[in-house]
Amino acid sequence: MTTRPTTSPARHAGVRRLVRATLFSAALALAASPFAHPAIARADYNQDFYNWCMSNLSEGNDYCCAHAGGVVKSGACVDPATLR
């Protein structure tokens, strides 16, 4: 007498749940991956814009320095790359 292995419906249901959970997790990981590592914005310091802003706009040192990509240090606008 030979026995044939049979699978039960309960086992099929368990495998189906596992496959669904795996697919759902993979889809969620792919959908969330662009948000996991946000882009790092880096603006280069623009001395020409700073000079133009200071001479043509009446916004002040802080505004012009920030929009030129610089950092105010001791009242002067400096390139952030030189602060390292």
Q: Sum up the overall morphology in one term.
A: rod-shaped
Tally of helical runs: 3
User: Quick one: how many beta strands?
Assistant: 2
How far the N terminus sits from the C terminus, by CA atoms, comes to 81 Å
Q: What is the succession of H and E elements? A: HHHEE
- The whole-angstrom Rg is 30 Å
Query: Order of strands across the widest beta sheet?
Result: 1-2
Main beta-sheet strand count, sense and barrel state: 2 strands, antiparallel
The proportion of residues forming helix, as a percent range, comes to 40-55%
Low-confidence stretches: none
Q: How much β-strand is present in the residues? A: 5-15%
Structural class: mainly alpha
Mean pLDDT: 81
Verbal overview:
With 84 residues, this protein is mostly helical. It has a domain at 47-83. The protein contains three helices and two strands; from the N terminus they run H-H-H-E-E. Helix 2 (47-56) runs antiparallel to helix 3 (61-67).
